[in-house]
Amino acid sequence: MYIPEYFRVRDHEDAIKFMRANPFAILISSTDTGPFATHLPLFVNWAPQEGKVVLRGHVAKANPHWRYLEQQPQCLTIFHGPHSYISPSNYTEHESVPTWNYGAVHLYGNAQVFSSPEALQGVLHELIRTFEPAYAAQWASLDEAFRQRMLKQIVGFEIEVTKMEAKFKLGQNRTREDQQNMIASLEKAADTAVSGVARLMKEQHLGLSNPKKADE
Question: From CA 141, how far away is CA 165, in angstroms rounded?
């Protein structure tokens, strides 16, 4: 991914937080006939002491993507979040042009697939704890034969990340006044994809009198 230094996310914790806040990702694999992509939610496991990131999820057994991961384990996963058109009317400099601001994280890694009931139960429990902990009781109360049928319809996978690229394009190269104008404009939007850019800007301490330092 092309990342000008202004927009590079150097803090792994910021990237992990972003992925967990935007867990619906795009998994991309290479095949003999070209790229193949699946949109799906993922569990992000981060061990900061080891500097290790592992993604876990599952696809429908009818989805050929798991076979592609078996044949070619190397893959790309993209996490994408809020994004918005940025009008040059937000800038104090008249000679300015429109742009688009956004956040994205690209992860490269090697996948392993699994289909044993025990392993699948493990990834399902991770996803349930992440997205709806209250559903755990309902899942446990379902008929065992039904649960086993459901498990047979999916294939699990985990991806050990070998490279992570994170980019927050949020006007870091603009003046503090420009950043404040952008935030004020974006916050008015009813569309959360747009107002989310303002939130992400504030989380990155943009537009403040004491902006976050690059080495913090």
Answer: 41
Query: For 87-101, how does the pLDDT look when each residue is reduced to its tens digit (9 = 90+)?
Result: 999 999 999 999 999
Handedness of CA 82, 87, 93, 97 (dihedral sign): positive
Mean pLDDT to the nearest integer, 183-208: 95
**Position 167 in a domain:** yes
How far is 179 from 116, CA to CA, in rounded Å?
A: 51
- Average pLDDT value for the chain: 94
Nearest-angstrom CA–CA distance, 9 and 81: 14
Supply the pTM of this predicted model.
0.92
Between the CA of residue 5 and those of 67, 97, 167, what are the distances in Å? 37, 20, 9
The full DSSP string for 128-183 is HHHH-TTHHHHHHHS-HHHHHHHHTTEEEEEEEEEEEEEEEESSTTS-HHHHHHHH
Do 25 and 41 form a contact (C-beta atoms < 8 A)? yes
Nearest 5°: phi and psi at 163? -155, 135
Residue 65 covered by a domain:
yes
In the numeric block, which tokens belong to residue 140? 């446990």
Range of the domain at 173: 5-203
215 in a structural domain: no
